Amino acid sequence: MKLNSSDIQAMPSRRRAALINSLSGFKSANLVGTQDTAGATNLAIMSSAVHLGSHPPLLALVIRPGGEERHTLANILATRCYTLNHVSGPLIEAAHQTAARYPQHVSEFEATGLTAEWQEGLDAPMVAEAVVKLGMELREHQQLKINGTHLVIGEIVLAEFPALAMTPDGALGLAQCGTVALTGLDTYHEAIPCKRMAYAKPDLPPRQIAGTHTAASNEEYSR
Ligand SMILES: Cc1cc2nc3c(=O)[nH]c(=O)nc-3n(C[C@H](O)[C@H](O)[C@H](O)COP(=O)(O)O)c2cc1C
Predict the structure, then answer these.
(1) CA distance 40 to 209
(2) How far apart are CA 37 and CA 139, in angstroms?
(3) Average pLDDT of 123-130?
(4) 192 close to 175: Cβ distance less than 8 angstroms
(5) Ligand 1 midpoint to CA 46 (Å)
(6) 56 prior amide bond cis, ω within 30
(7) Measured from the CA of 69, which atom of ligand 1 is nearest?
(8) What pLDDT is recorded for position 143?
(9) Domain layout of the chain by residue ranges
(10) How confident is the model at residue 213 (pLDDT cuts 50, 70, 90)?
(11) What digits encode the pLDDT tens for the residues 80-90?
(12) 47 lines ligand 1 (CB under 6 A)
């Protein structure tokens, strides 16, 4: 199938959203934890986390426009603090349910049965059940001219994950942590690493790093 701009524009809006949401490839699945200035907690699933740089360690989120009805955005702007909690297999149902439009006074923690966990010096709740949890401080916020979406840039000020899942070179083995991937707005995927490649150099052919974690070695980790 080949679609041009007019074909895409002519699509019914829900079909277009479903298609375009899948075209950027596999995405991350994070639960964004926040609280308002009165201490009411909020949790929302987001698939738009993107790496912006390592030094300082920055991640961006793309948040849809919608003013005060966007509780996550309002809370981040008010407290300048939030958490990102990787969705893993056992959390999928609860995580997905946080996308429901609960009224402001209803906490998605209570609505979904997930547990808020607090860290010293961090003004936002983590998800106790998550395996990988990040504490974030807001560094920059821009509303994009092109479509009114909000780009929220935060610095990782706290990272919590199982030490065993760290690879010898320092990367985090996300499959070992059970972190899932997302396509579109509704399909969750288990990750199975297939190859790990060495740093690419013009004068060397592509080289695979020995000891790539496979599905079998994932099981070893979870034992
Ligand atoms: C799989 C999935 C991914 C989502 N990703 C985003 C996202 O990246 N940005 C966003 O603004 N909304 C995203 N949403 C929608 C929010 O989760 C939803 O609007 C939620 O109600 C926002 O909660 P809040 O009003 O408490 O902030 C996503 C929904 C689903 C189901």
Answers:
(1) 47
(2) 18
(3) 98
(4) yes
(5) 5
(6) yes
(7) 25
(8) 97
(9) 25-191, 193-223
(10) low
(11) 999 999 999 99
(12) yes
- Strand locations in the chain (E): 27-28, 30-35, 41-46, 50-54, 57-63, 81-86, 116-117, 126-127, 133-143, 150-160, 181-183, 187-189
Q: Are strands 41-46 and 50-54 parallel, antiparallel or unpaired?
A: unpaired
Ligand 1 mutation pick, 46, 93, 107, max ligand atoms within 8 A of CB: 46
Provide CB contacts within 8 A for 177, sequence distance 6+: 86, 88, 131, 132, 161, 162, 165
Using alpha carbons, select from 162, 221, 164 the residue that is nearest to residue 191: 221
The pLDDT of 109-137, averaged and rounded, is 97
Average pLDDT over residues 200-204: 97
Structural tokens at position 173: 């083995």
The domain over range 25-191 is classified in CATH as 2.30.110.10: yes
